[in-house]
Each structure stands twice: as C-alpha cells, then as structure tokens.
Amino acid sequence: MSDEEHHFESKADAGASKTYPQQAGTIRKNGYIVIKNRPCKVVEVSTSKTGKHGHAKCHFVGIDIFNGKKLEDIVPSSHNCDVPHVNRVDYQLIDISEDGFVSLLTENGNTKDDLRLPTDDNLLTQIKDGFAEGKDLVVSVMSAMGEEQINALKDIGPK
C-alpha cells in the first residue's frame, strides 16, 4: 500500500436520471421522447411495416416542450428511446423583478427565485398584466432534463 493521498472529485449528481429507456414501438401520441437531446411532446407517430432487411420503423414528430421547435426522428420499433422525466409543479407568483426573474411561493412556504419569465409573448403579457392588476396568479412550471420553464398560468381571483 502506498501512503499517497487520493482525492476524487465527484462530477455526478445523486443518481436520479434525467431520462429512462422505453421501447420505441410503445411510445404514443401525447407522450414524451428525447429527440436530438431535447425533451419533446410527441404530436405524431407513424410506423412503417417491416422491410426485406429488418425492423419496423417508428417515425416520431415532436415539439420541444421548452422552445416549441418541431423535431423529427426515425427509430427501429424494437429499439429503446430515451424518455424524459417531465414534472409539472404549480407555484403562486409573488413578485416579478426588473431583470426578468420571478419570485414564486413553494408549497412549504419558501421562495423560488431562479426562474425567468417565459419567452412566449402571449403568456408573458398575461402574467405581467395580471400581476399589474394585483390578481392572485398561479404559474405551472414544467421541468425536464435539468431545465425549468413557466408554461401555463391560472388566475385564482383578486388578492
């Protein structure tokens, strides 16, 4: 044994994976899939018949859940695809700062201050206008693959 000291730097997280494998043939419309390393909601699935040399193929058309871009992929139906863990959490809106960050109230009473206002213009104006009018607003935050974004708004009445 040597008397050298060894230091290991851990670059991994706690082990909760950002995706899980699922057979391509079992992924359906309105499900989720990873296309080109982006989490997407599946809007169209078509399956071709098995050819002379092999597998039936699934053609997926997905919309990126964060930026709305349309992505496509073709995968043999017997192969595994990555499916993102998608979570949706509702928070009450407390404040909007000048630099575009929002302050949200979590269920346990803490604040979450690391989210920006959404890039969707329609949703952005609804949030800003509702906040300016002093309404009680609840925003839905969708998270997948280490990204989070506000994607919906509910008005729960005046303060």
UniProtKB/TrEMBL annotation:
Q: Which Pfam family, any one of them, does this sequence belong to? A: IF5A-like_N
Keywords attached to this entry: Hypusine, Initiation factor, Protein biosynthesis
Modifications after synthesis and translation: eIF-5A seems to be the only eukaryotic protein to have a hypusine residue which is a post-translational modification of a lysine by the addition of a butylamino group.
GO BP annotations of the record are: positive regulation of translational elongation; positive regulation of translational termination
Query: Where does the Translation initiation factor 5A C-terminal domain start and stop, copy by copy?
Result: 85-154
**Molecular function (GO) terms listed?**
ribosome binding; RNA binding; translation elongation factor activity; translation initiation factor activity
| SUPFAM superfamilies registered for this protein in UniProt | Nucleic acid-binding proteins, Translation proteins SH3-like domain
Q: Where is the signal peptide?
A: none
What ranges does the record give for the region Disordered, renumbered to this chain? 1-21
| UniProt biased composition (Basic and acidic residues) | 1-12
User: Which Gene3D superfamilies does the record associate with it?
Assistant: 2.30.30.30, Nucleic acid-binding proteins
Quote the PANTHER family the UniProt record gives: TRANSLATION INITIATION FACTOR 5A FAMILY MEMBER
Q: Its function?
A: Translation factor that promotes translation elongation and termination, particularly upon ribosome stalling at specific amino acid sequence contexts. Binds between the exit (E) and peptidyl (P) site of the ribosome and promotes rescue of stalled ribosome: specifically required for efficient translation of polyproline-containing peptides as well as other motifs that stall the ribosome. Acts as ribosome quality control (RQC) cofactor by joining the RQC complex to facilitate peptidyl transfer during CAT tailing step. Translation factor that promotes translation elongation and termination, particularly upon ribosome stalling at specific amino acid sequence contexts. Binds between the exit (E) and peptidyl (P) site of the ribosome and promotes rescue of stalled ribosome: specifically required for efficient translation of polyproline-containing peptides as well as other motifs that stall the ribosome. Acts as a ribosome quality control (RQC) cofactor by joining the RQC complex to facilitate peptidyl transfer during CAT tailing step.
Q: Which NCBIfam families match?
A: eIF_5A (TIGR00037)
> Into which family does the record put it?
Belongs to the eIF-5A family.
UniProt protein name = Eukaryotic translation initiation factor 5A
- What is the native source organism of this protein? Rhododendron williamsianum
